[in-house]
Amino acid sequence: MKTETNAQSPWRNLVYTVLIVLVVVLAMTFPQPFTQIGGFPLKKLILPLLQIIMLGMGTTMSIRDFEGVVKTPKAVLIGVICHFIIMPGLGYTLANVFNFPPEIAAGVILIGCSPSGLASNVMCFIAKADVPLSITVTSISTLLAPFMTPALMKLLAGQFIEIEFWKMMVEIMQIIIAPVALGLILNRVFHKSAVVLNRIMPLVSMGGIVLIVGIITAAGRDSLLTVGWTLALCVLIHNLSGFLLGYWSGRLFRLDEQSCRTVAIEVGLQNGGLASGIALQMGKVATVGLAPALFGPIMNTTGSLLATYWSQRPPKAALSGPEPTELRTNRVKKVQE
What would the pLDDT profile of 281-320 be if each residue is shown by its tens digit? Predict the structure, then answer.
């Protein structure tokens, strides 16, 4: 498989972002095609689409993804802890500052309590950050999500809406753990065939996320017309603050520049698809699901710009250090293709 150059990658991500923005505009203007087809409610597609996306993530994972825990335990620990402290805390603060209706506020907190997504691995590659560290933090935060997300939602969003901890935990395990585990098995048993899946699944995942965003936008159109610009501003502040606080947390704990960039990206980029799936399972996709739907296009735009900026300013270690390891090369290929 051929790895894209740094110059090509930002354009690919911007095209993805443009598609999401275009779908949002279409869903706001013509909501009917995104709500049902022939009497079939399209929101029923969200859960199976998310499971397919997580299956694809599983096919790209292996035990090697967790080597970073042994090689750089300090950076991994800081990345995971910052992810589950900074973004939930920011979400709770912003939800109260903006004084949104309860279910909209809960959605802002929900996106903050979600794990990081695969987009962070791509952005780290572009930004000349530590890709193996990024993959390790993404994998660990994803596997911790069935426990951390319900606990944080119960603690922070419980004042806005009722949170059923055990029910949410089971639902997240159905969305994440089962498909990822199946993907790991497929990768292990059908290793050669998994190479083909690694080429197809990223495209399927992007298409699935675009469709999910369109469905949620159409479902929550009325609420968006009421709080749309304010909510978009809130989500933008949430995302940018995650980048900023993530980076300076790394600096505070004396991580190297590559690791600081990685922590910044891992903290700032969330798994909006998972948050949307949780909102659907709660029966509140048109309200709780709005912040996750907006977070996707916003984080991809800001993430691409930040990664492109950093790509033009490689860390000193990256300039004089050794060539990337086999792990880094192989995993980057899987992320990029």
Answer: 888 878 888 898 888 778 877 887 898 889 888 887 554 4
Pairing of strands 40-41, 36-37: antiparallel
The verdict on residue 309 lying in a domain is yes
Q: Which helix (H) or strand (E) holds 149?
A: helix 131-156
Q: CA-to-CA distance for 285 and 279, rounded, in angstroms?
A: 5
Query: What total of structural domains would you count in the chain?
Result: 1
In a domain? residue 164? yes
Coil, helix or strand at residue 77 = helix
C-alpha closest to that of 333 among 37, 141, 60: 60
Which structure tokens are listed for 116? Answer: 């990081």
At residue 35, what are phi and psi to the nearest 5 degrees?
-100, -45
Place of tokens 């800081």: 78
**Domain containing 290: what range?**
16-28+41-336
pTM of structure: 0.79
Yes or no: say if 138 and 121 are a contact pair by the CB < 8 Å rule.
yes
Task: Tell me if 34 is assigned to some domain.
Answer: no
Does 36 reside within a domain?
Answer: no
Residue 332: CATH number of its domain: 1.20.1530.20
Burial of 250 (0-12, 13-18, 19+ CB in 10 A): buried
Tens digits of residue pLDDT in 228-261: 789 989 999 999 999 999 999 999 999 999 999 9
Give whole-number Cα distances, 308 to 301, 304, 311, 312, 323, in Å. 11, 6, 5, 7, 21
Residue with tokens 């995302």: 239
Q: Which helix (H) or strand (E) holds 36?
A: strand 36-37
Calpha distance 109→92 (Å, rounded) = 5
